[in-house]
From TrEMBL:
ATP binds at G11, T12, G13, K14, S15, F16. Its EC number is 2.7.1.24. PANTHER family: BIFUNCTIONAL COENZYME A SYNTHASE-RELATED, DEPHOSPHO-COA KINASE-RELATED. Its main location: cytoplasm. It comes from Sphingobacterium alkalisoli. This is Dephospho-CoA kinase. Pathway: Cofactor biosynthesis; coenzyme A biosynthesis; CoA from (R)-pantothenate: step 5/5. It is found in: Cytoplasm.
Length: 194
């Protein structure tokens, strides 16, 4: 079974494209969602976060203190790198274990930080979802109800689209002009043949 990664910058529509693949019955792993579960449930990650950031990483009831942790790491690139070094290896292993159990022609792993985390190295192919900058900004402003400046700040912390294109085996253009479904189906048929 082929292992395929799908990624894209904020506002490109990677989750929407992933839903199209899911609707065709392709086994699907949402790395960002699983990372949140792992941060809440994994003893290894819990110990790592408490050692790195202190007991306030978790609330008294044992739940991850998301807001506090986010405020602590997202303004400091070094702390964000520490957080990622604790969480990413566990998520990558979890996704490999999940993929081992799947059946069919291929499975799909969606991850915002597919290239940045290095998890693309354990995949057979990757798909990058791309969209024009102005459209991405509008989508995120509407979705998250934030200003253009806040969107641009978030984007500045991500790997550039140009850099991601160097790693991608396939690129799907999600610009609301080029038909999306035909691009997805073309790639789907390529994977079925392989």
């Amino acid at each position: 079974m082929l292992r395929i990664g799908i990624t894209g910058g904020i506002g490109t529509g990677k989750s929407f494209v992933s839903k199209i693949f899911k609707s065709m019955g392709i086994p699907f792993y949402d790395a960002d969602k699983e990372a949140k579960n792992i941060m809440s449930k994994s003893d290894i990650v819990r110990r790592g976060l408490i050692n790195a950031f202190g007991a306030k990483s978790y609330n008294r009831d044992g739940a991850l203190n998301r807001k506090w942790l986010a405020d602590k790491v997202f303004k400091d690139p070094e702390k964000l790198q520490i957080l990622n070094s604790i969480v990413h290896p566990v998520v990558i292993q979890n996704s490999k274990d999940w993929a081992d159990k799947q059946r069919g022609a291929y499975s799909l792993k969606e991850a915002a930080l597919l290239y940045e985390s290095g998890s693309y190295k354990s995949l057979d192919y990757t798909i990058l979802i791309a969209a024009p900058l102005d459209l991405r900004i509008k989508r995120v402003m509407k979705r998250d109800e934030i200003s253009e400046e806040e969107v641009l700040d978030r984007m500045s912390k991500q790997m550039s689209e140009e850099e991601k294109e160097k790693y991608a085996d396939f690129i799907i253009i999600n610009d609301e002009i080029v038909p999306l479904l035909s691009q997805v189906l073309d790639i789907h048929h390529i994977f079925l043949k392989k």
